[in-house]
Amino acid sequence: MHPAQSPIGVFDSGLGGLTVAAAIARALPHEHLMYLGDTARVPYGTRSPATVVRYAKKNVAFLQGHGVKAVVVACNTVSAHALGGLTDGGSTPTLGVIRPGARAALAASRGGPIAVLGTPGTVRSDAYLYAIHEHDPRRAVHQIACPLFVPLVEEGWEHHPVTTTIAREYLAPLAGTEVDTIILGCTHYPLIRHVIEAAAAEVLGPDVAVVDSAHAVAEELAALLDRTGLARPSGQAAHRFFVTDAPDKVGEVGSRFWQAGALRLEHVDVVDEEGT
Ligand code: DGL
User: Fold this and answer.
1) Which residue in 11, 79, 85, 212 is a FRET match for 185, CA 20 to 30 A apart?
2) What pLDDT does residue 84 have?
3) Is 146 designated active site?
4) Candidates 38, 124, 150: which one to mutate for ligand 1, based on the most atoms within 8 Å of Cβ?
């Protein structure tokens, strides 16, 4: 089989990465996707870099074992800690979400400061700061860890008043900063984009741009596949979705993230013999 016919591997700590997978499916409708959500060990955002790297390597090994032609790390926390060295010998092209997200923010910004909302791990890593400064070393960057957003989204509280209150609380430090662009630096946050946009408008005015990396990742992936001759230019796509915890617990949450058709979750165990 020509490698172009192989699926693209996409993984996340949980189901949030389905927002990225959905953007890829829309942009590249002929590509097969193989998604892995490590729902047994989510969240990654509060764990140490060493633990995140260990988990991520298991996920990549699973996807490579299924012959994926490229790996999309659809998790900001993993992309922040471990993009290099995840694929043994660098044999499989790998794409993270931080650099595309940073580029999307710079494209949307009018030159003002940029704010990054992310998990504690992503914020502590300064990965977005470095990615922005690669393009514009002088750009002011404000980073805010928002640990409560992930459980609120998982709970389905996208429209709950508590989420609005917490968003206001997180964004309050941006008052008076002249931030013109906010990066949703976590795959869960696009589901509460409306709440974050409303809180941002209150604090920063109506012109603030709120960007996520999903669309930019899909664009970069398309370019990478073209460059490497791995694009699948025609034919119907078939997707598979794996989770590491019982699928019945997470199916409903997954459908909210995917929003691109039916979602059937299969179970897989990527934990090794020592139970790590
Ligand atoms: N998917 C993770 C991210 O984008 C958020 C959830 C987690 O903490 O694992 O950073």
Assistant:
1) 85
2) 65
3) no
4) 150
| pLDDT of residue 194 exceeding 60 | yes
Q: CA 197, CA 14: separation in Å to the nearest integer?
A: 24
| 107-131 pLDDT, tens digit each | 999 999 999 999 999 999 999 999 9
In angstroms, rounded to a whole number, what is the distance separating the alpha carbons of residues 99 and 216? Answer: 9
Domain that holds residue 13: 3-96+215-267
Q: What is the dihedral of CA 43, 46, 49, 55, to 10 degrees?
A: -20
Please tell me the total count of domains within the chain: 2
- pLDDT one-digit tens code per residue, 41-99: 999 988 999 999 999 999 999 999 999 999 999 999 999 887 766 766 667 899 999 99
Write down the pTM of the prediction. Answer: 0.91
Decide if 272 is inside a domain: no
For residues 167 and 63, membership in a common domain is answered with no
Query: By the 8 A CB rule, do 77 and 13 touch?
Result: yes
Instruction: Give 114's DSSP letter.
Output: E
CATH code where residue 243 lies: 3.40.50.1860
- 232 CA from centroid of ligand 1 (Å): 29
Pocket test for ligand 1, best of 10, 11, 13 (most atoms within 8 A of CB): 13
Q: Does residue 186 carry a catalytic annotation?
A: yes
Closest C-alpha to 92, from 65, 53, 58: 65
Confirm whether 203 is domain-assigned.
yes
Residue nearest to atom 6 of ligand 1 (CA): 43
pLDDT for 274 beyond 60: no
